[in-house]
Fold this protein.
Amino acid sequence: MTLPWLESLPVWGHAAERTPPKRFVVQFMGTGISPNNWWAKGAGATMELSKSLQPLEPFRSKLNVLNGLYSRPSTGVGIHPGMTGNILSGMPLTRGAVLHGGISIDQVLALRIGQETLQPSLVLACEQPLTGYHESNFSMAYSSHISWQSADSPVPTEVYPSLAFDSLFENSGSRRLESILDRVGEEAANLRRRISYDDRAKLDEYLTSVRDVEKRAQRMRGDLSKASTNAKDKGKSLITMKRPDNGLPEDIRDHMRLMCDIVAIAIQTDKTRVASMLMCRDLSGLFYPFLGVRDAHHPASHSDNSDSYERITRHYITQLAYLAGRLQSMQEGQTTVLDNTCILWLSNMFSGSSHDNSKLPVLTVGGLGGTLETGRVLEYGDKGNENRKICSLYLSLMDRMGVKLDRFGDADTRLARL
């Protein structure tokens, strides 16, 4: 069980190294946002945010709203899968049975800096992937995966919170039935006697947080076990079954919140420095009865300026705000984990009703250790196509993570003014 930053102890393998590492997290929402309700004005703590962005008001000084960016290889190729599978790679996708695109930014970072952590990256999803082919002859795998470890292979996503939790704490076999905190109880007690008063409070807070996540994951472990047994008895695969029969929570709020908590713990403890979260895939079939919305996500996106779809959009921005809040609450010396992280939030199109991805909704939260200026609204829509490539943003972010490439995707220049 890894620990968060403690001032009393050497960290990150070097007794003299007190500079926190930089981290990169992606949150993705499929099928676009509510265009009429997506805007920001001003700068810093007085930045004015639209209705859909209001959950981010506590983080205005750490927020960047980037308008007008686009991915050229995903425009003019047909709707949905061809707009999605390369959202983090900027490479053209191949139609038909053979998958081929490009490695995604998160996996480039995992390859370059992943050896510094126990887990190179964490790839989570809150919705099962689709199978088959779209009418555009692109594989539905492109609609279901944003993280690609090679041009031909997506990174398998973990959709079950209990299994994602296990990956953080070396839970396997019968250990999954034991509390991780019970297993390390004696070591934790010995550690408390060696650290400062402030670190004891931080340690207690951390252990309490892990206990809470563990209990919630354990409840879902039981649901998964029952679902697996039922699927086996019926000769079905879990991936083909709907919630809650597939062992996933029927209320997606519980699912998304727990996945955010798992990412937060993984980042806080330096288990990994790279994570991606597919909150809902392209062509999503998720439902939102708690928002008073009758339609599933994808049909609802065809009325993207309706009150219903605005509520859906705001729900996903709320997940971003929740994760940012968790990281903001975690101290690392004089800074917080959020100060040393960049959370990138984006969707594969701007308007679902017109399937318009000529520009993309893009946000960043966090300062990457002071290397990323924040509290800004940056407009690129009028700067010309060569100057508004989302891959130029990726090159700029990778620079700040210490990974310098001459080219990535369709870009060989950095994003101006970032």
About this structure: The two ends are 37 Å apart (CA to CA). The mean pLDDT is 94. The CA atoms of residues 102 and 151 lie 4 Å apart. Residues 197-234 form the longest helix (38 residues).
